[in-house]
Amino acid sequence: MTSRFTELVVDCRDPERLAAFWCAVLDFTVIERGEGKVEIGSWVPTVEEVRARQMAPTVVFIRVPEGKTVKKNRLHLDVSPIDGSTDDEVARLLRLGAAKVDVGQGPGRSWVPMADPEGNEFCVLRALAPSAP
Hints:
The chain is built from three helices and eight strands. The model has no long low-confidence stretch (mean pLDDT 90). The N and C termini lie far apart (48 Å). It has two domains: 7-63, 2-Layer Sandwich (Signal recognition particle alu RNA binding heterodimer, srp9/1), CATH 3.30.720; 77-124, no CATH class. The relative contact order is 0.20. It is an alpha/beta fold. It has helices spanning 15-26, 47-52, 86-96, and strands at 7-12, 29-34, 37-41, 58-63, 77-79, 99-100, 112-115, 121-124.
């Protein structure tokens, strides 16, 4: 018996806004909308595909009445740019509404801590873009 990681759920005040932000960050699309919730992903999951193999999870934004209540999340996403530098991606994410944050990470880090428009932390890691000739 086993389970699959199928969804990552994010409590938030504005599911539409965060879904739009993360769709732009990850090149995902909205795959389902409901009362107070938006699900995004890189694919539309079917039971058969999920049972056959582990696939990338979808992200579900659920409306809740309260705002973020902790300074630093214990769980966060890491993203890696695939077609540009880390600095270029950080600049793009800032234009989309992200902010750089200090979560006590200290100097000399190789990643950039950021927060989405509702303050949920994530990190931009090394670029995975092919090197220019």
